[in-house]
């Protein structure tokens, strides 16, 4: 139970949900800076760490920068089906409100 | 986006996930005390309030006690499909680990 709650907790923040949503939208590894706006780098690092610990993203170094990718399999192991449903809800809401609310 | 994050945040705590899970398992309105163990009543009240504000439960008075029910329609309006997928993940995990981990 606690593992599912940890995944939900990680997704249950607007900044982190946006990070995960952008990774899903773009479909390929992204540098950290592409995944957030208007927050300090140290704040972003905290959010990335939380996402990593919840099994939602993986990070690796390439050419001197950190790339992020969605850890769909690991997320699905911890909370089967949840990440996909959250991404679908996000898309549905974005479509309905023409860009989010 | 923030409404989906609020639903996820409300579900992203082991105590609240258990409350919602028991409501789903039992399929009918439940008194507050049936939905948690081993926490203070004031702590439980805080968790119930957060679930209510996220649109996940409704509460009403009957015969001098408060009954809780799952607000499936409202949850679905705020985060389409998410509550159902979380409940399914919870059941899947409970089955796999024979009682949750």
- The portion of residues forming beta strands of chain A comes to 5-15%
CATH homologous superfamily caption of chain A: Winged helix-like DNA-binding domain superfamily/Winged helix DNA-binding domain
Tally of distinct domains of chain A: 1
What is the number of helices of chain A? 5
> First CA to last CA of chain A: what distance?
30 Å
Sheet with most strands: strand arrangement of chain A: 1-3-2
Give the % helix of chain A. Answer: 55-70%
Largest sheet of chain A: 3 strands, antiparallel
CATH topology of chain A: Arc Repressor Mutant, subunit A
Assembly type of the chains comes to: homodimer
User: Which two chains have the most extensive interface, and how many residues on each?
Assistant: A-B, 32 and 32 residues
Second-tier CATH architecture of chain A:
Orthogonal Bundle
Q: How would you spell out the order of helices and strands of chain A?
A: HHEHEEHH
Q: What's the CATH first level of chain A?
A: Mainly Alpha
Low-pLDDT residue intervals, each spanning 5 or more residues of chain A: none
If you compute it from the alpha carbons, what radius of gyration of chain A comes out, rounded to the nearest whole angstrom? 13 Å
**Number of β-strand runs of chain A:** 3
Given the C-alpha coordinates, what overall shape of chain A results? globular
Residue-averaged pLDDT of chain A: 94
């Amino acid at each position: 139970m606690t593992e599912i709650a940890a995944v939900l907790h990680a997704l249950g923040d607007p900044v982190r949900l946006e990070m995960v949503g952008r990774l899903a939208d773009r479909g390929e590894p992204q540098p950290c800076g592409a995944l957030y706006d208007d927050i300090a780098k140290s704040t972003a690092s905290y959010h990335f760490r939380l996402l990593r610990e919840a099994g939602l993203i993986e990070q690796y170094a390439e050419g001197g920068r950190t790339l992020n990718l969605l850890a769909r399999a690991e997320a699905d192991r911890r909370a089967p089906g949840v990440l996909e449903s959250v991404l679908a809800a996000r898309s549905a809401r974005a479509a309905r409100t023409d860009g989010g609310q």
